[in-house]
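Model it.
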Amino acid sequence: MRQRIALVTGATSGIGEATARLLADNGFDLILCGRRSERLKILEKELSARCRTCSLVFDVRNREEVEKAVRSLDKTWNQVDVLINNAGNAHGLEPVQAGNYVDWDAMIDINVKGLLYVTKEVLPGMVERKSGHVINIGSIAGKEVYPNGNVYSASKSAVDSLTRGMRIDLNPHGIKVTSIHPGLVETEFSLVRFKGDERRAKDVYKGMHPLAGEDVADLVLYTLTRPDHVVIADLVVFPKAQASATVVKREE
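Modeled.
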């Protein structure tokens, strides 16, 4: 039996990188995807000692790049069994009236359209084989809106809705669809959101123990290793200190 092939977007950092490492240790072959080619090369070289790997360099928001990259996979790689839509971003934290068009475009183009572009390239093969599993990494922001999180929350709400829609559309084809919605995870997320302001990014996790990328990766693996008749449809995960998008117990 061949090992299952998992395609992971946003594999060069955070949840995506942690997921790639864990799957490499648990019987999956990997298609590593990201924008940063040097990081991909380093990760591919490391993980190739544990499983078969290949890498695709593209920006999910660029439909032509996505199409070209995924369609370049040869017959040894184009039977993708697992799609992990992890690539995502947040930019800025302002009320709507002070929002930035560039930030809005980045969040909608990556979190929503990028997810769709990659999914549309991978799904036809799954449908043809009547087998596969799609995991979309959402956010607690897709479940509840918080102050100044307007467009980011809207983009992650779209991910939540798209996931539910996919599950219905793909049900006749025997394809599993899962969404995982983390709360506070300490990755590059806040550093990107605050445009490199390290102090402000660190303050997001001050006085509490946030989730790590490895915690979410562990849930991805759990989801993928359930019996064939079991689908983990929707998961929300918080660190112990967090109770909602806005309620966090912090130590002084």
